[in-house]
Amino acid sequence: MDFRIAMVKVVKDDKRLNTYASSYLNLLPDDFLPEDNIEQGSANKYFNIGIKKAISTLAFIIDTRGIPRKCDEIILDETGLFTLLGERGINLFEQIVQSNKKLPLEVINQSIVNREYLNIEQYSPQLLIKQLELDINREFLASTIKILNLDVYFSFLSWLDSFIRVNEVSNNWVLDLPIIRLDNDVSSLNHFIGNSTFHIRIQKTKSIESILLNLGFGLSEFFLDEYSHIMAITNQGESYLNKDARLYERISQNSKLGTLNPSLKK
After folding, report:
1. What is the pLDDT of residues 176-217, one digit of tens each?
2. How many separate domains does the chain show?
3. Which domain range does residue 27 map to?
4. pTM for the complete prediction?
């Protein structure tokens, strides 16, 4: 059966797709064969010619929509962000990157499609950092974060914490990134640190959260100090997150403090 016909039949069958896609690229060689081999050099040369022709002309890498693509139609997510977010990440990638190239299906072995001889373009962390400096792309990110379920949202925060540990980003890049959700709003650390009716949760203030709620404070869905590298950046500026005096000041200035049940003030 023709290779392309067989592949189309597989990708039309959703039940078989993930199983097939997770292993079919194992058929590819690790690299081109050595052509300077005295005994097999000539055979290896023709083998390499055949492989080069195949990978340049055949659509054999399945993209996230289940469509077979050629190598020059695929781009690899070296940031890990878009793959992490699943279907939401695919949409976000298309909005931010604005590329005609497509991401490979998530279950495909990334170490194989990263092989040098396939010459597949890589979307780098440096490009993501640059593109997330643009307001429009931050808006796309905020819209995506708004609709993530809680587990994926926490996974995103863990990804961000690791991302800023291994990549060179400015403090402002992190502080201005829209990552905190409140009702239908997603905004930045800078925005919510300065919000007099919102409290970013940390373990140190966990014991007074009932007081904060009674005073009308909104609370973040996560504890910031569980993400040590994000927390370290916020701690470089003075705020209620690292200064008790600033915390007590914002509580004492709350207009509802006088109506608080005395038992909660203890």
Report:
1. 999 999 988 999 999 999 998 999 999 999 999 999 999 999
2. 2
3. 1-52
4. 0.85
Round to whole Å and give the CA distance between 261 and 266.
10
Structure tokens at 93: 């990638």
Burial of 195 (0-12, 13-18, 19+ CB in 10 A): middle
CB 79 within 8 A of CB 130: no
Question: Do residues 190 and 173 touch, judged by C-beta distance below 8 A?
Answer: no
**Rama region for 116: left / alpha / beta (φ>0; ψ in -120 to 50; rest):** alpha
8: tokens are 């189309």
Contact (CB, 8 A) for 38 and 32:
no
The strand ranges marked E within the chain are 61-62, 68-69, 75-77, 121-123, 178-182, 185-188, 198-201, 218-223
* Residue 105 maps to a domain: no
Q: Write down which residue in 9, 26, 52 finishes a domain.
A: 52
